[in-house]
Amino acid sequence: MINKVVNNADEAIRDIQDGMTLMLGGFGLCGIPENCIAALVKKEVKDLTCISNNAGVDDFGIGLMLQKRQLKKMIASYVGENAEFERQLLSGELEVELIPQGTLATRCLAAGYGMPAIFTPAGVGTEVAEGKEIRRFNDKDYLLEMAFNADFAIVKAWKGDTTGNLIFRSTARNFNPIMAMAGKITIAEVEELLPVGSLDPDHIHTPGIYVHRIFQGEKYEKRIEKRTIRE
């Protein structure tokens, strides 16, 4: 069997170059590939297009890449927790494409399934539809959306094995499995890396066929985006 293990995040992202398009898994601060983001910041690659549900916060996640002006374009569904993102957007430094969350997920799925495009009712009659083809099916209008074309998908899982099979934990599953399917090259960082055969096949969320590189990450932060406590 192919051993897909690399030593660390620096080796995993070794061939990511300026101007590439990256998918980054996670939702809010949950299930984000922290080690790979840190390696990208250290490598100082720039002019990147990032596809992610959100843009992190100012001092964590994709927010660290925004601080270093590494992003040319952000494709996301929700971006309301990042002041630096807002500043770059309003100043014209950052190109932004906001899309409905379901459309974001389905465009990932389309890429993973090898489909060039999808038709969706989301966004019809809004600014999202400007310049896009609309087709009518069964007396209802649908918007043509293209599948994503990402050079790399970078995801974070709870457990993985040396052949790339992945298990995600609870809500950290979020966008990670569908993005893992969609990149030309998929990098997975995991909290626990196990020998092949260690994972119950019935529990695997992403088969190793989709994963090209895997490594065990370190020093993960279990951040809480918004803490609510009872008085």
UniProtKB/TrEMBL annotation:
Which residue positions does the secretion signal occupy? none
Q: Which Pfam families match?
A: CoA_trans
SMART domains named in the record = CoA_trans (SM00882)
Keyword RNA-binding part of the UniProt annotation: no
Kindly state which keywords UniProt assigns to this record, in alphabetical order: Transferase
GO molecular function terms attached to this record: transferase activity
Family per UniProt? Belongs to the 3-oxoacid CoA-transferase subunit A family.
The name on file for this protein is CoA transferase subunit A
This chain's source organism reads Olivibacter oleidegradans
